[in-house]
Amino acid sequence: MTDTNKEFYFLEDGGEMGQLMRNRDWSKTPIGFPETWPQTLRTTISIMLNSPFPMFLFWGKKLKCFYNDAYRPSLGINGKHPSILGMSGKEAWPEIWDDIAPLLHSVTEKGESIWRENQLIPIFRNGQLEDVYWTFSYSPVKDESGNIAGVLTVCTDTTEAVNAANKLRESERRFREIADLSPVWIWITDAQVNVEYANKELLKYIGLGRSSDFTGQTWESMVHPDDIKLVYDGFGEAVRNEANFALEYRVKNASTDQFEWFKVLAVPRYEDKQLKGFIGTAMNIEQQKCFANNLKSEVEVRTRELEDSNIQLEKMNKELQSFAYISSHDLQEPLRKIQMFAEVLLDKEMDNLSKKGKDKFEKIQSAANRMQSLINDLLAYSRADTEKRIFKKIELQHIIDEVKNDLAEEFKKKNGQVTVEESCSLEVVPFQFRQLMYNLVSNSLKYSKQDVAPIITIKGEIVNELIISGLVLKQNTKYAKITITDNGIGFENQFSDKIFEVFQRLHGKQDYVGTGVGLAIVKKIVQNHNGYISATGEPNVGSVFQIFIPEIHKG
Ligand code: ADP
């Protein structure tokens, strides 16, 4: 066939199918040479071959098959193509003939046109019977004499679209199933916050049967009036920031008419940068809220009670201190008189006393002296609290020199020595700190072993909280750590805390004079400096006292 052969103009072009038709030896088929084909068949085939829309033609009594390139993919890779070209309909489509024959019949016999959408017509292609969905029309093609000679099928294979729609429906069904099982609310709204979908739990709470009854107004009427603004602000901000948001607000329970707390998490949804609505969840947190509120009020009550008893305690403490101070102070006067008259007696009447009398008199004198030191200690103890505290930077070495000077006689008597291994400067109330070091050094001298010269070592260093173990010190604070070590009689470690209590004495009254107040004063002074003290001992080996005082005092 050439371009000049006008007889075959209707088979020109038409892609693969056009070529197939041109190359076919039609003389061997019942349909005969194309030049004998009726005009209507020629015209219809010409239209079909050149149409980009999938078309199929059943022609003649036997309903011979013709189709175009656009239709060809619907026949798959290994299947009917190209063998069904020119074949009778019944032969070409045995698997669906029972379904389509009645349709073709009503077109050829009654001249009806037929339109079907997404109809499942399984066909044999790709080596198997495949479920294929079609949207198609069957229309009659009349020959020159006005009789229906064929059926033109214009169709599209909608399998992919139908499968996609089915998948979507299935995944939506699953989503609804899961959402309805959830104890958490799940909802989707439009941009006006009208609810498009609400799961069962939410509908039940709000007292509605269907999501479609759920409008923005319903929602608004269920939210606690005090929380409405918060809700609007929250939604508004989420839209402005195009971000998820979380809100806690109260919603009315339709069955109890009571408001309960919910934690709502939502995310705005967009399509082409246009706000389309929100997707969200909400969890009932009523119990947590109640628990937290109860706990809060319980803590408030307890804190108030504690504050009250603290105030009470402080008051009592102050009263006790002033009582201790006043009574010690007042006791000084009669004691001074006893001591003064004892002096006079000692001076003037000693010779007149018997040996027994002298003994008794000495006991009176030593008792009076003990009482004097007790009063002095008690006064020092109560003063440690009442006196004004002015902090100053001092050098540890300097304080120790002063203490050494004050105790020079005792050092000499016991042949003792004190060494400052390392000194540091620290911010303290000088006279209190001097008293503290005095008490510790004098104890080390006092509780020395009988035939061993007391050796006291003092070390001052600046440390930070990380290297102090066993003590809970403030973070980010540097401390002056002062260690006083002696080689005295030591003590059992079980008394490490007790020795700091007032009137606590571990060693015999007879052997060591004292009141049991010295270390209590030491502890109080350390506390006045926001510091810590610890003591460890080993009987017959010695004692170690460690003091931690913040390097810089902060008010
Ligand atoms: P005291 O007036 O009895 O010395 P303190 O309060 O100073 O009172 O000390 C309480 C007790 O702790 C003392 O009685 C003593 O038993 C023990 N103690 C204090 N310092 C030392 C030390 N350096 N070595 C051994 N024991 C000590």
Explain what you see.
The protein is α+β, with helices and mostly antiparallel strands and 555 residues long. It has three domains: 3-158, Beta-Lactamase; 182-284, PAS domain (Beta-Lactamase), CATH 3.30.450; 388-550, Histidine kinase-like ATPase, C-terminal domain (Heat Shock Protein 90, 2-Layer Sandwich), CATH 3.30.565. The chain has helices spanning 15-23, 39-49, 89-92, 97-110, 159-181, 200-206, 216-222, 228-241, 286-348, 355-386, 396-406, 408-414, 430-446, 518-528, and strands at 55-59, 64-67, 114-120, 123-125, 128-130, 133-142, 148-157, 185-190, 195-198, 245-252, 259-271, 274-284, 392-395, 417-422, 425-428, 455-464, 478-486, 532-538, 542-550. A five-stranded antiparallel β-sheet has the order 2-1-7-6-3, with helices on both faces. Helix 11 crosses helix 13 and helix 13 packs antiparallel against helix 14. The model has no long low-confidence stretch (mean pLDDT 88). It binds adenosine-5'-diphosphate. Adenosine-5'-diphosphate binds at residues 439, 443-444, 447, 486, 488-491, 499, 504-507, 514-520, 537, 543.
